[in-house]
Amino acid sequence: MDQIERLIREKLIRDAQAKTRRHFIKECATGLGGLALGSIFLGCDPLEPKTKEQKITFSERDLNPLATLPPPHTPKVKSVIYLHMAGSPSQLEMFDYKPVLHKLNNQDCPESLLQGKKFAFIKGTPKLLGPQAKFSQEGESGNWVSNYLPHFKKVIDEVAFLKAVHTDQFNHGPAQLFMHTGSPRLGRPSIGAWATYGLGSENQNLPGFVVLTSGGKTPDAGKSVWGSGFLPSVYQGVQCRSEGDPVLYIEDPKGISRDLKKSTIDAINKINKEEYTKYADPEILARINQYEMAYRMQLAVPDIMNIQNEPENIKEMYGVEPGKESFANNCLLARKLVEDGVRFVQLFDWGWDSHGTDHSTAVDLGLRNKCREIDRPITALLLDLKQRGLLDETLVVWGGEFGRTPMQENRGNKEMGFKGRDHHGDAFTMWMAGGGVKKGACYGKTDDIGFLGIEGRVSVHDVHATILHLLGFNHEEFTFEFQGRNFRLTDVEGEIIQEILA
Amino acid sequence: MDILKQFLGRLHPLLVHLPIGFIILGLLLQLYDRRKHSYNKVVAFVFLWAGIVSIFTCVSGYLQYLGEGYSFDTVKWHLWLGIATTIFCFLMYSRISGKPFLAFLKRFPIVLSSTLLFVLISFTGHLGGDITHGKGYLLEPFPNSVKSFFGYETFEEKTIALTEENWETSLFYEDVIQPLINNKCVSCHNPKKAKGELMLHSLEEMLKGGESGEVIVKNKPEESPLYSRLILPKDDEDHMPPQEKTQLTKDEITLIKTWISYGNPFNETIGELALNKELFLSFFPQKENNIYPDTIVVTAPTDSITLIKKFGIHVQQISNASNFLSVSCINKPSFGDNDFEMLSPIKEQIVVLDLGGTQITDAIFEKLTSLPHLTILRLDNTTLSGNGIAFLAQLKHLKSINLTHTNFESSFISPLGKFKTLQKVYLHNTEASKNEEQRLNGKQTILDYGNYELPKIAADSIIY
Questions:
Q1: Strand positions, DSSP E, A42-112
Q2: Where is the DUF2231 domain (chain B) (predicted)?
Q3: Whole-number Å distance between alpha carbons of B187 and A374
Q4: Are A44 and A339 in contact (CB under 8 A)?
Q5: Is the confidence at residue B256, as pLDDT, over 80?
Q6: What percentage of chain A has pLDDT greater than the value 90?
């Protein structure tokens, strides 16, 4: 260690010795020459008064990257709440009713179905596993829902189901990235980042894109699922913690008053602005803005993230557990954030990976507990948005990164102690609700055992195209130039799912 | 070296004008001097130089072909004709300057060779133009009749226009299927192009099929390539139309299926076939599903918007395609009745107004009548009692009022019945909740009292 320090010191001394007066004069000559040349060029414009100070003007977006922009087309919704069940819930126990599968329970899966298919864990010939839940048709729409979600039937007519969504990824990380960025590999911006980049955010005291997680873990794909990819980093999701301070270090340190903090930030931003005029790097603006945003957030965030102040009946409706990390708390927060003009709220709930390896991942046990944890909060969220007149201008999306197999998982080609299902990307259920969505619609159909979509198959890109459409974008024209070409959220695919639009 | 090559290649579009100029000059001189032949020396000199610069042009052209990634098929004819022109220049030179070793050229009439050279240079130049500007660039401004005379593809998009009145009497084939196939398929399957030896411009040809047999199997769409190829995955080699062409919509594919399954009827109307109206809905004139007024307003003055924004009020166009504005006080909770005047320069443009969480009082209702296009109004989280809400009946486009979390009183509900366009009133958490009426104004206006509850059920506490 000492040696390294000595080396550094020696280098500094050598550097100092190397710079002689001659160097100074020489550098002055080129420097001054350059200055002189510059002034000649500047002086060339005969119309420009010589004494005028050089002034760089900033556009609204330069100074505040979250300044709002109008969408190209009239939007149906202002904000999005995306509820992601990380791990992927079993559509066969929640929404996709398959009576035939019930009859085929415990029979060998036909070889023809398995040919050319890749599974994460299933080996050899698995047995079919009938639905573990009881289903009923609910609401005026008569859409199916299982007894795992007893509250949900109250809002079933608000929802439009997509019964045959498919993805080409069968592992959590890539599938989550695909679901949120349109590509199974790292580096693309998430939907929320695209939305905030394209529209900005109305509330100047809150971030435009907020992420809340529950279930004890963050998604397998990491923070990239709410990353900004190649978009300026100011558009990435801001993750708020569910326990303790919502944002770390949001309190002022001891002995630092708010005024002192303000003047500190002002001074830093002044320096940064000078830096920007020199290099014109947009990341500097993002930094300036983040300082200012952080300062304003200090007041606004603790207030909005505090669910204690909500009236009792609302807290009961959602079933919140203040002070804990819970999906219910996050649902209530999502409503508060959207009410306060946040553009995109992303909720991740971990624990849906029902392989049947233990009690908590069994489709007849652990899954039921997970369903109970979301049933009341989601129903409450939709009702609460509705009664506040917010459901007309908010889009709520629910789904996982893929679905689950109609076959029982047989990890290591052995019978397992609990009933579970493997990853399955060929057909799974998602739903949307809110502005511009056809209430009570149900689009797409799977085969008798829920293995493949046979009608109304939609891809992840189609879902993205539809979300962007509702926000007022044409997904084919909403692009960002990067590495010499224009990138889209939907890349070269995606069709708007007209069937679920009002 | 590569840079130099590329640079020289890019000089080609400039260099080409030299031989063109020289050759035309030579030809003009020949024409002018057709009787006396006293300029022969000059003409020979001109053609000699035409030939020399042509060599340079050919070389630079070849470099451009190498450097800019053109396929050989694209440049083939331009390249060979360019070389032919160069050789021809030297032949002309030899002939006119009277070089003895090429005396046999004399047997060839000079008028003919000059004309040939003219044709050659024109055609080479034209092909070059096609490469840089794209095929058909020159004839683009002409009507289709001229274009098809010169052998260019001309396919007019035929619109399929069905209305409530005529859809049943429209012919299924002629008014729907035929235009649909014309728009999406015929550009490749026509008498001139006939990809896969298949032509789809008429029913007779369609029934003949293509190189792999019939495309329509009567009543069996799944076995008819005309349908089955449409539903293959887009990246399948046999998928039609090819991936890069405009695809058929889902509705259009369903129509083709229906048409084949009905035995590809030719003369029947949609009504005679008793087809479901839903199949054709996408061809009906689309109702503009827009909640905002159907009028166009001028752009709001930028200065005023800047001023309003400076004050802390959020102002935003509802979309790039519209001058209507959405105005919100989300960042200005101190907004009060007196600040409303500030909005008067943009009163024509406001369609969405969010005054939620501000200091406004019941006096605001009368002021709001100055916003002629107001469609969505949010007054939530204020102390309004609703006294004066009747003023808003003057607003011709008002569709939604949000009064949640206010002191709105039930007695002010009945005036809402006179609002002609009102669709929704949100009254969650107000004094009015005790009111019984769910709908007003002939059921058109929905009153949402909110206060939803989710009673506890046994399943809430069962842990598995």
A1: 79-86
A2: 11-132
A3: 53
A4: no
A5: yes
A6: 63
Euclidean distance between CA atoms A187 and A190, whole angstroms: 9
Asked whether residue B362 is assigned to any structural domain, the reply reads yes
In this complex, the residue of B317, B320, B459 whose CB is nearest that of residue A372 is B459
pLDDT beyond 80 at A480:
yes
Q: What is the pLDDT of residues A350-408, one digit of tens each?
A: 999 999 999 999 999 999 999 999 999 999 999 999 999 999 999 999 999 999 999 99
Q: Are residues B190 and B220 in the same domain?
A: yes
Q: What is the Cα–Cα distance from B179 to B173, expressed in whole angstroms?
A: 8
Distance from CA of A45 to the nearest CA of B (A): 29
Q: Which residue is closest to B282 within chain A, CA to CA?
A: A498
Same domain, residue pair B88 and B12 = yes
Q: What mean pLDDT, rounded, does chain B reach?
A: 87
Model confidence at A51, pLDDT cuts 50, 70, 90, reads very low
pLDDT of amino acid A440? 94
Domain boundaries, chain A: 2-55, 63-246+305-500, 249-302
Residue B297 lies in a domain: no
Q: Check if the beta carbon of residue A112 is closer than 8 Å to that of residue A447.
A: no
- Which residue from A69, A72, A150 is facing B459, i.e. has the nearest CB? A150
Q: B407: pLDDT confidence band, cut at 50, 70 and 90? A: very high
Please check whether residue A384 touches B, CB under 8 A: yes
Phi, psi (rounded to 5 degrees) for A176: -65, -40
**Using CB atoms and an 8 Å cut-off, which of residues 324-363 of chain B contact chain A?**
328, 330-331
Write out residues 259-318 of B within 8 Å (CB-CB) of A. 289-290, 292, 314, 316-318
- Residue B315 lies in domain: 302-448
Same domain, B269 and B357: no
* Chain-chain contact of B428 with A341 (C-beta, under 8 angstroms): no
- CA B268, B269, B274, B276 dihedral sign is positive
pLDDT of residue B271: 86
CA quadruple B407, B410, B414, B417: dihedral, nearest 10: 60
Chain A residue with minimum CA distance to B460: A372
Residue A32 has a pLDDT of: 59
Q: How far is A53 from chain B (nearest CA, A)?
A: 24
- Distance (Å) from the alpha carbon of B220 to chain A's nearest alpha carbon: 19
Residue A213, beta-bridge partner list: A348
CATH number at residue B416: 3.80.10.10
Specify the number of domains making up chain B: 3
B400 in contact with chain A, both atoms CB, cutoff 8 A: yes
- pLDDT exceeds 60 at position A35: no
A69 contacts in B (CB within 8 Å)? Answer: 316
- Asked: is A63-246+305-500 a CATH 3.30.420 domain? The reply is no
